[in-house]
Amino acid sequence: MSSKDWIEKDYYAALGVEKSASSDEIKKSYRKLARESHPDHNPGDPKAEERFKAVSEAYAVLGDEKKRREYDEMRSLFGSGAFRRNARGAGQPGGMPFDVSDLFGGAGGGEAQFGGGGGLGDLFSSIFTGGGAGGAARPRGPGRGRDVETEVALDFPDAVRGVTLPLTLRAPGVCETCHGNGAKPGTQPVACPVCHGAGVTTRNQGSFSFSEPCRNCQGVGTVVEEKCPECHGTGGVTKTRTLNVRFPAGVADGQRIRLAGRGEPGERGGPAGDLFVHVKVRPDELFGRTGDDLTLTVPITFAEAVLGTDLRVPTLDGTVTLRVPPGTPSGRVLRARGKGVVRRDGRAGDLLVTLDVVVPATLSDEARAALETFAAQTPPAAREHLDARVRRFS
User: Fold this and answer.
1) Is 59 in contact with 30 (CB distance < 8 Å)?
2) Is the separation of the CB atoms in 250 and 162 below 8 Å?
3) Would you state the pLDDT for residue 264?
4) Which domains, and CATH codes, for the chain?
5) Is 133 exposed, middle or buried (0-12, 13-18, 19+ CB in 10 A)?
């Protein structure tokens, strides 16, 4: 991604959001568009693949607060006319010929990388002083690959215990023919004859000295004389690859796992981007989860609640017996310690069992008679605090 892209491309339009959109709105729009245009959902559709790349590129900037701020500043600066050609009029005294193509090496030239250094300050210091500290021109080098995002659905027990799953992706990967350097097997990239490997060239214009990416090598510092027949000199090809991804115990729904260096390969041997895996956890028919604790609701009879009982309940790795004390009300929570989600430090959450006293809808004659006898021998519930209020409305 280049600073020229930051000026020429409207990333807000690519994601279909307003410039004032919140981070959550940007993320929501990105996820929707990425799912719709993902190559796995549109096999053989090059337009969908281009849309997916455009959306991913836009989110790489707008999804990062620092990059988004620099992007807005850059767009605002150039949009205000601060660097338009002949700012004081063509041919008039004091007018300095300048346009974006001068800054970035023309439409087909090299591009200055952006976002990895000090932002706008580094960019403009390199433009007007001919490089970094001490005026030395610094080569851009092979560009870093883009980050890749995907989504994986896990069963509830696997998310609690942890699991290793194969993840199949169809995305750009390192070319196996040239091993990423873009050169035909048996050959190697050579130093650029124009910039002599520096990646930048310097020229004087008026009272300023401009340093720009070398147009001959696009700022990489090397050129490929004989391109790889497989990747045509890019160092990467789109292919299907399978990764074994370890999901740690206790991974939560909505969590994002980062796999460093498993994204798109960098240009001509540059560092690869990262792979981000969004986790979706399927609901379980019995268990719920609150933090590191598992939850379970167990029905009991009226007699069990009154008399007490030993209750055998399931866990994710077996069963446990809990004592229900006599006189237990509906809604009481019993705790099975250590039967929840295992934390990273080795400690585990608990299993929280909520008791639900079931009231039968129908009774046999014998059961009804026994219950009436029980009711006759049981004092009524204390409701004096309610009776006083009832009498006020009688």
Assistant:
1) yes
2) yes
3) 77
4) 143-189+224-283 (2.60.260.20), 288-392 (2.60.260.20)
5) exposed
Residue 167 sits at φ, ψ, to 5 deg, of -120, 115
Question: Does the model's pTM come out above 0.70?
Answer: no
Would strands 190-191 and 222-223 be described as parallel, antiparallel, or unpaired?
antiparallel
d(CA 239, CA 168): 10
Q: What is the pLDDT of residue 101?
A: 45
- Residue 330: is its pLDDT beyond 60? yes
CA distance 334 to 323: 8
Q: For every residue of 224-270, which 3-state class applies, written as one string?
A: CCCECCCCCCCCEEEEEEEEEEEECCCCCCCCEEEECCCCCCCHHHC
pLDDT at res. 100:
46
Distance from C-alpha of 39 to C-alpha of 55, rounded to nearest angstrom: 13
Residue 183, token pair as written in the block: 């050169």
* Residue 380 contacts residue 289 (beta carbons within 8 Å): no
Task: Encode burial over 288-318: b for 16+ CB neighbours within 10 A, e otherwise.
Answer: ebeebbbbbebebeeebbeeebebebebbee
Assigned token pair, 306: 């009154």
- What is the rounded average pLDDT of the residues 315-326? 93
